[in-house]
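Quality-control log, excerpt.
Job 1 of 2 completed; input and output follow.
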Amino acid sequence: MGKLSETLALAQQRSRDAGLPYAGLLTPREAWDLLQAAPGARLVDVRTRAEWDWVGRVPGAVELEWMLYPGNEPNPHFLAQLQRQVDPEALVMFLCRSGVRSNNAATLAAGHGYTNAYNILEGFEGDKDAHGHRGKLGGWRFAGLPWIQG
């Protein structure tokens, strides 16, 4: 079994163990490796426009707000936007700040024909530390993966 297959099998086992309706759970490093190795793989960043502008972006990611900024209401067009921009046959990985919104997006996608939908654990910024700050306990940036500011 190759590295790509091993990574997917591990992610799928995590999802089964957690009883999730989508294909798998990936660490940020695994997601980056798959993005590089799997032809047609897509990363969908579901954070808000404010987060992309002020916190940072993942180069090449499809950016679709799960919650609209500034009102913080659900994006009623999320599924239609996803369907326009990402092939349902693609390996699609969802990313948010900490892994919660991306879990919801992966669940929605899986329920609408995206059989290769994955959630990226820890998100872009990771969990909060004892002082309520993010960025020191995991996440895309903490792992040293590519991102740009503003």
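Job 2 of 2 completed; input and output follow.
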Amino acid sequence: MRYSGIIFCLQVLLIVNLVACGTNINQQIQKSLPTPAQLVPKDTANRVVSLSAITTDIISQLDQSKLVGMTGSSLFKNNSRLQNIPRVNEVRTPLNLEKVIALKPDLIIAPTGFYVQEMGKLQQLGIATYTYHLNSWEALQQLTQTLAQLIAADPQPLLNRYQSFLANKSNYQYSTLVLTSIKPVLSPNKNSWAGDLLTKFKAKNVTADLQGKSQFRGYVTLSPEKILQENPEVLILVNTPQPQSRTELLESWQKEPFWQQLQAIKNNRVYIFDYHGLVNPGSIDAIEATCKQLRLALSGQ
């Protein structure tokens, strides 16, 4: 179990760097041009290669005809809508530049901090690129609007769908602790996708305002003493991208010295969430599923 915890931490480091940075995507596109890894097209983009799962999903739902290439993702293995879109790499494998260039894209979209060298080479070839940060609900809305503008699509249907995810929120503010890994014990503060989502559902995230020395941006490292001090009413455990069974995950946490002393344990308010949707937005369906589960968990169901 300790080994799987280490692997998960490495995965969190990669994904948190992807989703946990601030941005002002709502600014006009031309105003945001002078960034090192960004060169948006002058005209409407008609051939887009997406290098993240969430932008693949957004582009395909805005206008699937504009998506000509995508990164591999376990989220889309059984997605018939994306079955015939060429993969330019698979999960945790290098980007195949030859495949990308062969698709003759007029726009490449990637998360900031990823594929930096490859994006630079593509720019040198005159191919437009666009990078983004995603660490809040507002950033998701802004990213959707920006991508819609780049490919001349209407973002409103997707924005309306996002809004529906936030309906019927709990009227109770339970103190809530999200634990994303066990070695070290990590929890999201308000500067992360998970932390912002908790705020949207009126959860009282006990680590929202904590700042730590964790290398995982948007997350803080917690000691057993700090967890006991906060003593949350609701406890959310995050399963890894390589899922364990519910029993295995619970057994790993039950060995921790603070476990039996928490009021969330005593009141049976422990919930297991999927990594995609809560830590990494992943896809629109994953976000929707997480919102439904949050609504139930935070209302005591």
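Post-run check on job 2. The longest strand covers residues 67-71.
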